C-alpha cells in the first residue's frame, strides 16, 4: 500500500543527491511508483529516447542519471502485476512541477501540477526534507497512479 512513510523510507534508503527542491519532489514521485509495485527500467537520457516506452527491455536499472538535466526528468517503469510499461515525465517550471504519465498503448495522459514549495523544506536532514508529504502522496495516487492502472487499489496517505 502506498503511504507517505513508505515513500520517505525509499528516499532514506537511497539517499540521492538533491540539487534543488524540484529534485526532492521528483524523487518522491519516483519513490511512490516504486512502493506501488512499479519497477524502474529506464531513467534520464534513455527514458527520453523515442523508443523508451516501446523497448522490449524489461531489465531493472539503477537510478544513475535520474536528474542529469536541469528541468526535465523521465522514468520508464514496468508494473510487476501487468507487465505493462509506463513513461513518466516531469517538467520544472518556476516553482511548479508538471507530471505527465503514459501507459504503453494508452491514450489518456494523467497529469498533475504541483507547487513545489508546498511540499519541500530547505532542511538537509532527510527526515525534514518534506512537508505535507501525506497530501503529495494522496494526490499522486489519485491523479496519476490510480488512473494509470485501475488494478491499483485506492490507498490512504498513512
UniProtKB/TrEMBL annotation:
InterPro entries linked: PI31-like, PI31_Prot_N
UniProt keyword terms in alphabetical order: Proteasome
Chain ranges of the PI31 proteasome regulator N-terminal domain: 16-152
Protein biosynthesis found in the keyword field: no
Keyword match Amino-acid biosynthesis: no
GO cellular component, one term: proteasome complex
Protein family membership: Belongs to the proteasome inhibitor PI31 family.
Protein name: Proteasome inhibitor
Organism this protein belongs to: Cardamine amara subsp. amara
Organism phylogeny: Eukaryota, Viridiplantae, Streptophyta, Embryophyta, Tracheophyta
Amino acid at each position: 500500500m502506498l503511504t507517505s512513510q513508505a515513500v520517505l523510507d525509499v528516499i532514506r534508503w537511497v539517499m540521492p543527491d538533491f540539487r534543488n527542491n524540484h529534485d526532492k519532489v521528483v524523487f518522491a514521485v519516483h519513490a511512490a511508483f516504486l512502493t506501488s509495485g512499479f519497477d524502474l527500467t529506464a531513467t534520464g537520457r534513455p527514458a527520453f529516447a523515442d523508443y523508451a516506452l516501446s523497448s522490449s527491455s524489461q531489465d531493472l536499472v539503477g537510478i544513475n542519471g535520474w536528474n542529469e538535466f536541469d528541468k526535465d526528468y523521465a522514468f520508464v517503469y514496468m508494473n510487476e502485476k501487468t507487465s505493462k510499461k509506463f513513461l513518466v515525465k516531469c517538467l520544472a517550471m518556476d516553482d511548479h512541477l508538471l507530471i505527465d504519465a503514459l501507459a504503453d498503448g494508452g491514450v489518456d495522459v494523467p497529469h498533475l501540477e504541483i507547487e513545489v514549495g508546498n511540499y519541500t523544506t530547505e532542511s538537509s536532514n532527510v527526515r525534514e526534507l518534506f512537508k505535507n508529504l501525506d497530501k503529495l502522496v494522496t494526490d499522486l495516487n489519485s491523479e496519476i497512479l490510480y488512473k494509470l492502472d485501475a488494478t491499483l487499489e485506492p490507498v490512504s496517505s498513512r
